[in-house]
């Protein structure tokens, strides 16, 4: 199918981007790996595509104050290959599952967050780490934690006249370990169920915090504090109970709700155990 008619602009400054979005009938174009298929299927009909690739400040990618800041125009492949990204191990674990290499060469990290597909990997990473998402709009800039940013399927805290400027992922600290896994029909397909985990231990190896985010299981990434469960000798039981609570995606041709619950429970138990093992290896001597 062909996209419906639209105007195309390529502003050079963020102020010009916001001016073009004024009125709410424009759509931001960065990598286009989510937007272009939506247009081709005529699921969206924006009057104007606002290409942000000429805005220099949106290409920023660096470590600042214990966090990795990624601008809205930074490609996923650039982050995947960058030494700076090692400060956030969960990004490196998730990135190979994001589509295919060719798509990651054009797609942007921030674009994936702004698209907010409930089965996407990077929103789950942001939710698990409670990353900070910076949004610019007519009223100025604001910073939203990931826990408040994802409002539902393809729905975020950014309005139609806003642009997501950057995301800041907190850098890993000593004593933290991470896990990531998903199940899909084929590599590169959207996940039937997936989990991202983070466990932090103290100097004695005792668990201080454990977080788990599930994706592909509801209308947004679902995060839970699972610290009380980490002391269990077998996590499969508690995670099966958690799956019954939070997995509510309707069954389809790829798998029933019950099947997704079983996938989530097994992955969650395994990746929490993996994160705990890695955290204890990272405890400073």
From TrEMBL:
SMART domains: CO_deh_flav_C. PROSITE patterns: FAD_PCMH. Keywords: FAD, Flavoprotein, Oxidoreductase. Residues 1-174 form the FAD-binding PCMH-type domain. This is Xanthine dehydrogenase family protein subunit M.
């Amino acid at each position: 199918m062909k996209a419906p008619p639209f105007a195309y602009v390529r502003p050079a400054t963020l102020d010009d981007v916001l001016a073009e979005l004024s009125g709410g009938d424009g759509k931001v174009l960065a990598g286009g790996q989510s937007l272009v298929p939506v247009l081709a299927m005529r699921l969206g009909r924006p009057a104007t595509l606002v290409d942000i690739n000429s805005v220099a400040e949106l290409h920023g990618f660096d470590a600042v104050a214990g966090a990795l800041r990624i601008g809205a125009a930074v490609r996923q492949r650039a982050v995947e290959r960058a030494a700076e990204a090692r400060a956030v191990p969960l990004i490196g674990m998730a990135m190979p599952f994001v589509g295919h290499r060719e798509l990651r060469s054009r797609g942007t990290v921030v674009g994936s967050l702004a698209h907010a597909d409930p089965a996407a990997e990077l929103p789950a990473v942001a939710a698990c780490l409670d990353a900070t998402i910076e949004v610019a709009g007519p009223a100025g800039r604001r910073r939203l934690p990931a826990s408040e940013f994802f409002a539902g399927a393809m729905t975020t805290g950014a309005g139609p006249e806003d642009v997501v400027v950057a995301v800041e992922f907190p850098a890993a600290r000593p004593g933290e370990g991470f896990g990531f896994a998903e199940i899909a029909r084929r590599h590169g397909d959207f996940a039937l169920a997936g989990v991202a985990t983070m466990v932090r231990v103290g100097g004695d190896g005792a668990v201080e915090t454990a977080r788990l985010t599930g994706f592909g299981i509801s209308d947004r990434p679902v995060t839970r504090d699972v610290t009380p469960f980490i002391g269990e000798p077998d996590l499969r039981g508690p995670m099966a109970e958690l799956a019954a609570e939070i997995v509510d995606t309707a069954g389809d041709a790829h798998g029933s709700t019950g099947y997704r619950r079983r996938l989530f429970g097994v992955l969650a138990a395994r990746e929490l155990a993996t994160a705990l093992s890695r955290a204890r290896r990272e405890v400073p001597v």
